[in-house]
Amino acid sequence: MKIAVIGSGAIGGLVAAYLKIKGQGVSVVALPDTVNKVRETGLKISGIRGDFSVAIDISEKLDFCPDLAIFATKTQDIESAVRRNHEFLQDSVILTTQNGLQAEKIVARFVPAENIISSIVMFGSTYLEPGKIVHNFEGSWIIGSAFGINNAKVIEVSSVLNQIFPVIVAEDIKGMKYLKVFVNANNCIPAILGTSMQEAFSDLEVSKISMAIWKEAFDIVSRSGIKLESLPDFPLERLTKLTSMPLEESAKIYSGIMLGLSKEPFYGSILQSIKRGKASEIDYINGEFVNLAKANNLGALLNEKLISLVHQVERTGKFFTKEELFKELMSLR
Q1: Do 167 and 184 share a structural domain?
Q2: Which terminus of the chain faces fewer neighbouring Cβ atoms within 10 Å, N or C?
Q3: Of 171, 198, 216, which residue is a domain's last?
């Protein structure tokens, strides 16, 4: 199988490197600074599977028709990536990896819907500079047809990806993707503070904000009639249990989970983008709850406020202190 990984960040770079060392024919499409760096030094991987460097084909644009194109850009960059490589993608199977719920809809404007496979990444990695990725923690890779039932293409792709991560083929991937939005929704807080996930959530008061995000979002999703489906490493019961507890109790449990996340400092996807001077995917994560609330005449004051704070950090480059964050959120009471 000829594989192209479009995007060389935390997920794309890691996946490309692991596929390469398994003997797969894989090429990477990336931005110029990454192309130059990787051609010079290779992709450098560190973390829980050890440290190594792998030489890999890399370019700024596709020059062949891949059997499988793994899109690993941020959601806001998908359209431009598809347009740049459109002539080589019409017969390819497209695998999306993005957080949120919009990636497949964007891709479907350009390629046949039956060729699109959706996925949920449960492993974690960090990318802060071109060509260097830290693999923070293990996890499964969930895949399923984006539109319709699973077919032979899904099974074929699962067998390839299963060489590098445990793959789960899901019958209702949309319900699982909604639950994954909850998993990612708290990334906004370390992004506002400019800290690792572990540092941010070692503070119980900060962890209370996380649980308040979930409480508000769970109310929105429930009242909108959305059916959530358990993830392998995040059962639905965890969410329902924590959102039904007093904040004091749920914050302690959540803090303990996040402190054990990774030996290496783990920077969520939103903060990773900000540190690189890029727009984050906040509108496709917490923004999903806000949009759902508006569509159903519901309130999402906390998520709206946190989105605005992330955008303020993006504009100014200035992170908030914990005290400043608490003060901003006091206005919602």
Answers
A1: no
A2: C
A3: 171
193-248 per-position pLDDT tens digit: 999 999 999 999 999 999 999 999 999 999 999 999 999 889 999 999 999 999 99
What Cα–Cα distance (Å) separates residue 155 from each residue in 106, 113, 143, 167, 306?
23, 17, 9, 10, 39
Q: How far apart are CA 97 and CA 72, in angstroms?
A: 6
CATH of the domain at 302: 1.10.1040.10
Tell me the backbone φ, ψ of residue 326, rounded to 5 degrees. -60, -40
The span from the CA of 119 to the CA of 99, in Å, is 9
Residue by residue, DSSP assigns 241-257 as HHHHS-HHHHHHHHHHH
Q: Look up residue 234 and give its DSSP letter.
A: B
Question: Of 11, 170, 181, 5, nearest to 101 (Cα)?
Answer: 181
Residue 47 backbone phi and psi in degrees, to 5: 125, -145
In sequence order, the 6+-apart residues with CB closer than 8 A to the CB of 186 are 201, 210, 213, 214, 268
